[in-house]
Amino acid sequence: MNRIRINSTEGKSLLVLGGTVNDIVPLLPGRGLFIITDTNVSRLYGNSFPVGEVLIVEAGERSKTMETVEGLCRKLLEAGADRSSFILGFGGGVVCDIAGMVASVYMRGVRHAFVSTTLLSQVDASIGGKTGVNLGEYKNIIGTFRQPEFVLCDHSMLRTLPEEEFRSGLGELFKHGIIRDRNLFFDISASAEILAERDPAVLGDLILRAVRIKAAVVRRDPLEKGPRRILNFGHTFGHVLETYHRIPHGLAVAQGMLIAAELSVWKGEMPHAELRLLQVALENAGMIGGYPLPSGVVSMIARDKKSESGSVNFVLLSSVGKAVIRKLSITGLQEFVNYYTEKDSQSQQ
Predict the structure, then answer these.
(1) Residue 72 main-chain phi, psi, to 5 deg
(2) Is 82 within a domain?
(3) What range defines the domain where residue 254 resides?
(4) Do 149 and 16 have their domain in common?
(5) Edge-to-edge strands of the sheet including 150-153?
């Protein structure tokens, strides 16, 4: 078991990697515990929940709405939850986003923590204090920053993930190596067959290295004013693909990373050989599905939360393992999309 602490100006968070629910019992309150989970996690792990009142939402992205947040706040009020209550989000990325959002707004904020049950949430979604729900087709456009008191990542829980959800998590795992640690990228690429077996020891080592990267970035920039933006690599295009094609988040991000790498080459930031290196690794891992960009992609990105005053903060690469942040005008973005769409269309013929 490994422990990592995030101490920042916006709060403190303890990350417990490789532990079990028993390891967090001393961190929970003696009373006033409310557990927010989903239908799938409740069915699989309900017997492992600590003693507390359980609130269940439907599994899946459709639950990430303000209506869900309002409904949970109403249930908390009816159950007598007050400013001293404690919310434990028990689930994957969707549950962590919803539970964190509820905890940040209910009675102007109550204590909260997460038990992270998916690969995607263990390497990314549960860590760093971002909460958020969707507004129609726009991902996480309503949200807050609020650090969980702790996050437990029990790697044995990853054995129950459906294959598509596991590969979705690999997308975010790859991302951390691609933006900051070239050796981690190569180690993930080389471990594809072992990872498919869900070996907790192998997964635990790679997750630990990825989480150390994210924790270091969050400590430096907890509110995403600057350096933390590198964690959005692949997400600008990825969120559009996720919404339009209804594909899992991490798989959309993987495709988005490849497009962002193409943009990096187009802008002269990265050699083409690095793009090919990234492409081969993601294809070998079964991450690329060939989903085309929709015709309205530029207007969708222009209304994304990463857009500022007629330009977009894009995370590009100078090489695999080194991300850079660049502003791109909407006009420049349209020029690239025109180039990429034509190239993609020709490759499909």
Answers:
(1) -70, -40
(2) yes
(3) 233-348
(4) yes
(5) 2-8, 11-17, 150-153, 111-116, 86-91, 33-38, 53-57
| Sole residue written with tokens 């050796």 | 183
Write down which residue in 158, 187, 216 finishes a domain: 158
Mean local confidence (pLDDT), 297-301: 90
Number of domains in the chain: 2
- CA 303 to each of CA 141, 178, 308, 335: distance values in angstroms, whole numbers, following the listed order: 10, 26, 9, 18
Confidence check: pLDDT of 233 > 90? yes
Q: Is 320 exposed, middle or buried (0-12, 13-18, 19+ CB in 10 A)?
A: buried
What single string gives the DSSP state of each residue in 16-27?
EES--GGGGGGG
Boundary (domain end) residue, out of 158, 182, 214 = 158
Structure token digits, residue 83: 């400013």
- Over residues 246-267, the pLDDT tens digits come to 999 999 999 999 999 999 999 9
CATH of the domain at 10: 3.40.50.1970
Which pTM does this prediction carry? 0.93
Average pLDDT value for residue range 269-292: 94
Instruction: Let me know if residue 147 belongs to a domain.
Output: yes
pLDDT band at 194 (very low <50, low <70, confident <90, very high): confident
Q: Read out DSSP for 218-253?
A: HHH-TT-SSGGGGGGTTHHHHHHHHHHHT--HHHHH
